[in-house]
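Suppose you are handed a protein chain with no further information: no name, no annotation, nothing but its sequence. What can you learn? This example shows the usual starting point.
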Amino acid sequence: MFDNIVAISSGGKVNQAISIIRLTGPDSFNIIKKVFTGKVGKDKEITYGWIKNGDEVIDEVLVLWFEGKNNFIGENTVEVNAHGGIVNTNLILELILANGARMAEPGEFSRRAFLNGKMDLVKAEAINDLIHAKTTLQTKASIKKFDNKTSLYIDNLIQKLLEIIGIIEVNIDYPEYDDVEILTNETLIPKITKLKNELEETIDLSERSRIIYDGVKIAIVGKPNAGKSSLLNALLNEEKAIVTDEEGTTRDVVESSFILKGIPFVIKDTAGIREASNKVEKIGIERSFIQIEESDIIIHLIDSTKKIDSFDELIKEKSKNKTYIPVYNKKDLLNISSLEKDLIYISAKNNDIENLENKIIEKYQNIDINDERNITNIRQLSLIKSAYFSIKNSLSSLKDGIEPDIVIVDLRKAWEDLVNIRGKADNEKLLDSMFKNFCLGK
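A reasonable first move is to predict its three-dimensional structure. Written in structure tokens, the prediction is:
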């Protein structure tokens, strides 16, 4: 049986209007009755009273009662709504601890909700993602997991795989039954191929959506004095990097982050690329090329008042496998009529960078966070990938002529990975599926 745990659910490190102390466990009602003078409520009832330590009044409170299993945690739970001072909140916490509860570990309330069958791991991790969300888009993506559609989609994948495994198992263990579909490698390959393709699409969609959390890596590269530091400051809307007329001011990588239309970006200003004049500058230039390799987007900043040279060509060549955006700076020094229509011109000095921002965000504007196939949690996505590779291996084995009774090992591994997205795999479910889908015992 679970013990009784308690914690300040509203955060107890700052003074606030109201604080919530949550207590759950088999004796939670009895513990509260020792310190609360008001009425013990019925399920989902709020009652008024005082928290007292003997004759000493600690606070005037409202208590919300959750009796039984029909609540967030799935067991008797009490929430004390107190005034939000740090001192009185912690006094209430200490009093509850002294009367039979222990401090909850991080995430333990959600863990109990999972163990009590009130949520699966998809929702539990979505709650954690929501708490730590830093952008509106991250918040929306997390909330979408609350509607259970992603969990149902995973269940659908599991069921399709179970049916394949069940058919193979029955052919191995009950070959004498006439109502069992006879399988050969040729009949099995299309079934597994269809499932493999579905997982492949899910992985592709999910990896593109992961940037909502991971952020898009941008490197600003170019020759000295092209305005890279000015552009960094303009994108961040702050004076992050030192800007002077002297060439080679930036010797090391300057990193920061910003959010554009809900998408997080990690941006790096790099040393100007030219023939190095000393050892320190040479190291800085080498690091600039490393940033080109490690970034998703390369902003090649070009001084539009000067000619393109071999160093510009080198930057373009190094960026050929990336999203490469050539940008012509110092637009304010040019004749407007001379600007080429298809090129991106900016004035970083004057914060005239809107067309560049539109280009940066262009690739990421069509992320569909409402698609139930969006697996944005990294643990869940790693399990999807693991299942995909197991299914892919089983398909290759079948095409090589290996019998299904050997291939089933890979399929079982894929099944375990998919089930572990929502919770712990239980091999009894394989047997349940066999007897549910085939008339073996009639």
